[in-house]
Amino acid sequence: MSCPCRFPSVAPGIQMAAVTAKPSRYTPREWRNLRLGLLFVSPWILGFLLFTVYPLLASVYYSLTRYDLLRPPVFLGVENYTTLFTTDPHFWNVMYNTIYYVGFSVPLGVAAAFLIANLLNSRIVARSFFRTVIYVPAIVPAVASAMVWQFLMNVQYGAVNGLLRSFGLPIIPFLSNPAWAKPSLILVAIWAQGAAVVIFLAALQDVPRSLYEAATVDGAGGWRKFLNVTIPLTSPIILFNLIMGFITAFQEFTIPWLLTEGGPMNSTEFYLVHLYRNAFRFLRMGKASAMAWILFLIIVAFTLVIFRSSARWVYYGGDK
Amino acid sequence: MIRAASPARPPSPVQIRLQGAAVALAKYAILIPLTISFAFPLYWMVSSALKIDPQIYTIPPILLPIPVHPRNFIEGWQVLPFTRYAFNSIVLYTVPAVLFTVLSSTIVAYGFSRIRWPGRDTLFWFVVMTMMLPWAVTMVPLFITFKWFGWLDTYRPLVVPALFGHPYIIFLLRQFFMTLPEELSDAARIDGASEFGILFRIILPLTKPALAVVALFRFIWAWNDYLGPLIYLRDETRYPLALGIEQLRLRADDIGNFSNGIPYLMAVSTIVALPIIVTFFLAQRTFIEGISLTGLKG
């Protein structure tokens, strides 16, 4: 019993006191802790009220008004919402673009990240080198990557088309053709998926080796082991990456804004791009707030659906 | 061959080795092209930064920028007041954002992990929920509020909220603090140490790597932030580097009147990306551990 505490005889006594005090009334010590606890978290409580709760409530109100920052808000009721859904010429197109982008970039990105992580997790030389190269694009400033991608994908002097041209192949109008623009932006998004790769890799390294050994004894091949050991044991992380991926992708702004500015022909006018344009270019604060709330509900619904379905495919371990 | 492959006999050692080699070969056959395509855009950024216009517009593209033109880094930097933008990025935005966030989040995370008080874990759920809250919802009302404060064209809207803790960083630090044994604090309490004393003299020295992780994250978010400055800053002299690059692109787009626009743009982009990349290489392990933790404990 080599207790490192300075007063080994006193410490258990204090713990006893804390345990025996019944919750009907707080002991002085518990009061003290409550006061101290609240004191420590008070910055967050204040920030939560000021920068989350108040804006949320204000946003509900603004979404029911017409407000251009210059004149006081005019109450409209639900008109912003009904206009968006019925007569707005852009809203459904924006919705389509966003769903298209999210629907492809997130599942493809997560799948790619998962496969790359599996490759990196197997016995290979220079693993940390490969991991670094794949991770770095995720932390490079989006503005810098936007500049180089715009240059790379340029029709006349971009490297890809330069190469195609020198082989006499047809060029690809990555960013100037509505049919190509969305896939091009999805490609850039997948390129910047490194964080998911690193998270997957850590999860893969946590899978107990004994399970693979047991599977080998049972005669499972590599593919079986992947399906029946790797995927179930990393499924909570797949869920995590999917949800975080969806939340981020629904709000993608910088890359589409800088690469295509919503064009060509509004084909990359994604939700946040459109929201930004309405709020800060056209000063339609009411309409933008309504758009924000619609997006919020979509994201909540999406997250709930994935969570619900996850009960069927996510494995949380037998003992938890 | 055929006999060895039949299930009755175990495969010969030679065969196992051959199979292993084939699998390894297939792995590298995927991994190497993949890695090259991940690295290529950044390679292209740096190599184009070292070219001049004739080398940029050549078909087929020139892989190696020979002869190199390192002067682009200086000339590109001087097209616009980039030193000013760098000052804004560092002194007005990144440094205060990192300091404020780490300090406030440390204190809050301590309250959420090292002191037991009724309602603590319920309240912590709200922190987790704000992590998932789409920031698009608060973007417009916050802009209206900060405009009303008279904070437009300052860094206050980007830096002052950092004084109230960042949910994600609070979450991470709490996870770290929870791993330390309770006895540490108890012993100090018996010695009569205050909670602040315990936090700063006992807990923080033990969680330096965690502080490094969150400081790194916050540094990257502030350094890379584009939308925040885009919304709040109009006056060009107050721009951070991210907005400066975009201004340079406006110049470079005017190909007829402006030469070496692309090399300059790539050079400045390289300079702006460099601190992030260098930091990553210096603190690679800390970094990877931090990212892994965010996923695993989520």
Characterization of the model:
The complex is a heterodimer of chains A (320) and B (298). By secondary structure, chain A is mainly α. In chain A, 72% of the residues lie in helices and 1% in strands. In chain A, strands 1-2 form a two-stranded antiparallel ribbon. In chain A, a hairpin with a 7-residue loop joins strand 1 and strand 2 (74-75). In chain A, helix 4 packs parallel to helix 8 (178-191), helix 4 packs across helix 9 (194-206) and helix 5 packs across helix 9. Chain A starts with 9 loop residues before the first helix and ends in a 7-residue tail after the last helix. Chain B is an all-alpha fold. Chain B is flat. Classes of the chains: A mainly alpha (320), B mainly alpha (298). The interface between A and B is large, with 105 and 96 residues.
Features:
heterodimer; A: 320 residues; mainly alpha; two-stranded antiparallel ribbon; 14 helices; 2 strands; globular; B: 298 residues; flat
Helix content of chain B: over 70%
Rg of Cα set of chain A: 26 Å
Spatial order of the strands forming the largest sheet of chain A: 1-2
- What's the end-to-end separation of chain A, in Å? 32 Å
The value of Rg of chain B in angstroms is 26 Å
Describe the main β-sheet of chain A briefly. 2 strands, antiparallel
Largest interface: A-B, 105 and 96 residues
- Helicity level of chain A: over 70%
**What is the H/E order of chain B?**
HHHHHHHHHHHHHHHH
Q: Total helix count of chain B?
A: 16
State the low-pLDDT regions of chain B, or none. 1-6
Short description:
The complex is a heterodimer of chains A (320) and B (298). Chain A contains 14 helices and two strands, in the order ααββαααααααααααα.
Topology record:
The complex is a heterodimer of chains A (320) and B (298).
Chain A: H1 10-20, H2 28-63, E1 65-66, E2 74-75, H3 79-86, H4 91-121, H5 127-139, H6 142-152, H7 159-166, H8 178-191, H9 194-206, H10 209-217, H11 222-250, H12 254-259, H13 271-281, H14 285-313
Antiparallel strand pairs in A: 1-2
Helix pairs in contact in A: 2-14, 4-8, 4-9, 4-11, 5-9, 9-11, 11-14, 13-14
Chain B: H1 2-5, H2 13-49, H3 53-56, H4 71-79, H5 82-113, H6 120-132, H7 136-148, H8 156-159, H9 167-178, H10 182-190, H11 195-206, H12 208-224, H13 227-232, H14 241-252, H15 261-282, H16 284-297
Helix pairs in contact in B: 2-15, 4-15, 5-9, 5-12, 5-14, 6-9, 9-12, 10-11, 12-16, 14-15
